[in-house]
Amino acid sequence: MKNQIEQLQHYIHQSKKIAFFGGAGVSTESGLPDYRSQEGTYTKMEEKQLNPKIRMSKRFMLENPEEFFKPRDNQTKPLIPEPNAGHRFLAELEKQGKDVRIITQNVDGLHQKAGSKLVVELHGNNRHFYCMECGREYPYNEIPRDDTNVPRCPIDNGIIRADVILFGENLKPGILDRAKELIADSDLLIIAGTSLSVYPAKTLIRHFTGSEVVVINQSPLKIKDVQVDLTITEPVGETFSKLTVHA
């Protein structure tokens, strides 16, 4: 592990532009479970013989709003997560003048909360809520709900939803192109906390033409799209906590 950390340190310090492509595993050390973890949403649904791709789709939300917004068995008081060592390290690198561009599949906003300024959120965010009919925006703690617990706009009765990408929805125009542009223009690509199983996000790494590719994920990945130079099978935050910002 020591040699791997030293190698990663070397890659980071010699690079001029770092593209960090992150998934759910980046935020698990902040207390947010991976969808596929034991307590994750997907796992809980599958245990009940429910298909997450159907139950978490836009179509299901519109056709079955009461069921879609029903509190889940594993849903407790909303967690207010804080950035972990991984988020903080990347933000500090940028603060010290390193060109760090983050492409994330997460919707939690922890990179921004840590201080990162260039963050592309592929799947939207869970901090912005709006009415699907009129577009009125609502702070989370002011979202009105009807007597069946469905969040509805009092003006036109439209469903109020989070600005996240659900199954069956396309990424927002320009988001994918922006991510491709940033990855293609980087000399170091760090893929962290993701199994690269979600389309179209998983195809983005094909656009990397830089020098080194690093994978930090607790499960080894079989990547055919690019040559991987370093693989670390440890938690992302734990890995970054062993690095120094300064050369």
TrEMBL record:
It comes from the Bacteria. The keyword NAD applies. One of its GO terms (molecular function) is NAD+ binding. Its EC number is 2.3.1.286. The keyword GTP-binding does not apply. SUPFAM superfamilies: DHS-like NAD/FAD-binding domain. Keywords: NAD, Transferase. Residues 1-247 form the Deacetylase sirtuin-type domain. PANTHER family: NAD-DEPENDENT PROTEIN DEACYLASE, NAD-DEPENDENT PROTEIN DEACYLASE SIRTUIN-5, MITOCHONDRIAL-RELATED. This is protein acetyllysine N-acetyltransferase. It comes from Desemzia incerta. The lineage of its organism: Bacteria, Bacillati, Bacillota, Bacilli, Lactobacillales.
